[in-house]
Here is the input.
Amino acid sequence: MDEKIPSQQTGGHNDTRSEVKFSNADEAAKHFETVKKRFLNVNDWEKFAGEEKAEFKLCNTEGEVLSDEPEVGNYFRIKIPGPHNPTGESFDWAKIEAVEKEKNADSESIYIRVRPAHNPTAPNEKTAHFFDEKATSNFLIKREGNLVAAEVHGRNEVPNTDENLSLVEKIRNGLVAIGGSIAGSKFQWKSLTEGLIKSDE
Here is the structure.
């Protein structure tokens, strides 16, 4: 599954991983079912990452919030702390371009890849995200034997300074992208991966 993650060619990147080990594979498999439910319910990611982090909503091509499992062609509508995105009507948007599931005798994984995209509710095609369309965010959960892990891998993270954007939008995207590359996104993703794999208290 890891070979599905795009290669790093330009800009910033990040790699975040959280894991938990169990005494046997049966316990891990049982816990993975819980992790899987959390992972496929994108609208609840904020609960696991922390309310002070970004808010994610799964949307269709009309920008309407869905309660389904994510599918290729759906969108992530993201509301981040800090300056909001005028192009995305206060949100940053990313489109799902891959959803892949694998299951073998002693392993299982689910992979989601999203890429910055335009606001599906807007008539223009301007990328409504602080990164440009070369960037991807890659989300992965997996079980290997008695180990359960959640990972996020950011690739080719370049600020979106498209010539069609206003100066204010370019500045906003640069500030958010730089802040995320330095510390923000890493902190966000670590909170998410830890939250996804935590055992019920």
